[in-house]
Amino acid sequence: MEPDAGERAARRAEERLPRAMRTIDLLRTPTLRNQGELVWRIGLLCAAANLLLIGIGLAATNPRRASNWNLLFALLTFVIYYNLINLSQAWVSTAKLGMGTALAAIHGTAFGLAMLLLWWRDSANRRV
Fold first, then answer.
1. What are the residue boundaries of the structural domains of the chain, listed by start?
2. pTM of the shown model
3. For residues 24 and 89, is the Cβ–Cβ distance under 8 A?
4. Nearest by Cα to 107 from 55, 45, 63
5. What does the pLDDT look like over 27-65, one tens digit per residue?
6. H/E element holding 86?
7. How far is Cα 49 from Cα 114, in angstroms, rounded to an integer?
C-alpha cells in the first residue's frame, strides 16, 4: 500500500539534515549528528568572542615598525581555529568526543591563549 501525502511529508521532515533544522529542534532530539551541529553553531559564537580577544591582543603593536607579522598570525589563527571547529563537529557526530568536552577543549584553549596574549602584551607595555 502506497503511503499518502501526509505520511510522506512527515517522513521527509524527519529525514531533514541537521543543518536545515532550527536550534530548538536540535536540542529536542539529541542524536549524535544533531549534537555535532550544535557544537558547530555554539562554536561559531565562542569563536567570535575568542577571535575578538585575540585580535585586540594582536593589535597592540608599534606603528613605527616596518614589518607587521601580526596580520599574518591573525589570518593563520582564524584558519586553524575554523578548521578545529569543523573537526569538533565531526568528532562529536562520530562519538569520538563528547559535546561538552569538544567545546571546553577547543574554545577554552583559545580563550586561555587569548588571555595569555593580552597579559603578555600588557606586561610588555608596562616594562617600557
1. 22-127
2. 0.79
3. no
4. 45
5. 898 899 999 999 999 999 999 999 999 999 988 777 677
6. helix 70-93
7. 10
